[in-house]
Amino acid sequence: MRIGLLTEGGYPFASGDAGLWCDRLVRGLAQHEFDIYALSRSRGQEDSGWVPLPEQVGRVRTAPLWTAEDDGLAYGRRARRRFTECYGDLVGAVCAGPDAASDAESAHLADRFGNALYGLAELARDEGGLVGALRSDTAVRTLERACRAPGALRTARQARVPDLLAVAAHLERALRPFSLDWYGDEGLGAADLCHATTGGPAALPGLLARHFSDVPLLVTEYGVQLRSHYLALGPDAAAPAVRALLAAFHGRLAAEIYRRATILTPGNAHARRWQERCGADRTRIRTVHPGMEAARFAEVGEAPDRADAETLVWVGRVEPAKDLVSLLHAFAEVRKERPKARLRIIGAPVGREGEAYLGHCQVLAAQLFPDEAEGVHAVGDNPVSFEEIGGPEAPTLPDAYAAGAVVVLSSVVEGFPITLVEAMFCGRATVSTDVGAVVEAIGGTGLVVPPRNPRALAEACLALLRDPERRERLGAAARARALELFTVEQNIAAFHSIYLEIVSRCPVRRVVLDEAGAPLPFAAPAETHVPVHWTGRTARVLPRGLPGRAAGGPVRATPLTAPEAAW
Questions:
Q1: How far apart, in whole angstroms, are the C-alpha atoms of residue 553 and residue 549?
Q2: Going by C-beta distance under 8 Å and a sequence separation of 6 or more, which residues neighbour residue 313?
Q3: SS3 279
Q4: CA–CA distance, 108 with 93 (Å, rounded to integer)
Q5: CB-neighbour burial class of residue 412 (10 A; exposed 0-12, middle 13-18, buried 19+)
Q6: Higher pLDDT, residue 567 or 413
Q7: pLDDT tens digit string along 484-525?
């Protein structure tokens, strides 16, 4: 089958997000043909080039989200009236807020938002673009009327002109995929299935392919886009009116994506709960855990005795959300009972904030643990070390996990805990805070404590440091669980099964004509999806949306051979 793979800021760009997962998926499903439709986030990302693509990638089409030239289109009177009506319904549903007085009113607002969204898409297709209209004074005035209308959000009614301009600019950016030429029979309309690798802008082309050509849509979310927007719109990021309106818009958009997708595949129960809260039908949700390469950790996982029995290891990106401060205070409690214990913090800081946080943690470690020496003539040493992968003590990631008997995760915010799963592949016992999908990942193979609780974290670490046999049992169970649930192979097999399920339940209907110009029944038997070269002449396939009547001379359909006739 032909898969339209939709990405945002990711594959096939070399500096993209989730590129490794997409590459493994495409390479692992070599029996299918992939067309990639990628939205880029910056010029630097486009300049970084693409990763090497396998043969099953038929074509790649890219478009920037970070910039868009004014299309210079001059709408006629009818088109302007049409835009004002559709855009007015869209922002009217947004300004009504995320909560309605009743279920009926909530359903009405959802339908109003969806109909306005597709109305704007049809206008963009008919007129050749939507960028200029979304940037026009008409758009700002329409938004202002919606904010001042009776029943609008109280915060929206307080919006000033700068707030209205900021919201209108954000909506224009979010709706840029509407102006792309991806939706005809030479683009996404020719796909058997659209697979959006994240929600938000990446799923919009899939929504339009579904609307224009009935192509089924699969949406995968390993990180919930709606949650990311909520976190990005903090008090310091924008005015209250801007935050309220953009939160309402992204909430409505996420709900429409979840409502129209044929199947949703969250990467964990945490993402699944977000989707269900936004109205996703749980019968259409299939949890597919991220796939990770187990072979690189096999040597460490099969030799757990390499670990230092008195060493705790933390691995990850150094940033405030990881709460290394609580970890250092917890380690101070551990040292009171285990004076020979050591803590190795292995990871690189993220941005300037991460560098500042790393410096703060290093100062705190120096205060809590003055350099110690075994004698008066020895050089002192701090029991806490800060390292990076590639250093002399941890040349590779598996070596980092192999360095300690217990791997610790102290985060206060976490999505799917990749580092925790890597530790499980290495057969290490773990102590983690109960955030994100941690409990779902480890099951019963590790100890879990509340976040921001150094004492509980210390007690859990001490429980494992005191009991080597328990560490060994938990480590073996963790490795078995990781090999069962979190490998690349299970991830690819799950998506292959879901692809077949979607296409079998929601086949794309293409009109095939016989030599008399009449629709030909059973023109596309199931075996035509097998990737082989068929002989004979091809039946005429009409673009979807055209009448089932031959335009021109008759074209003979491919005659059935004996084996085919048996079907």
A1: 11
A2: 343, 344, 346, 400, 401, 403, 404, 406, 407, 408, 428
A3: coil
A4: 9
A5: middle
A6: 413
A7: 999 999 999 999 999 999 998 887 766 666 677 676 666 655
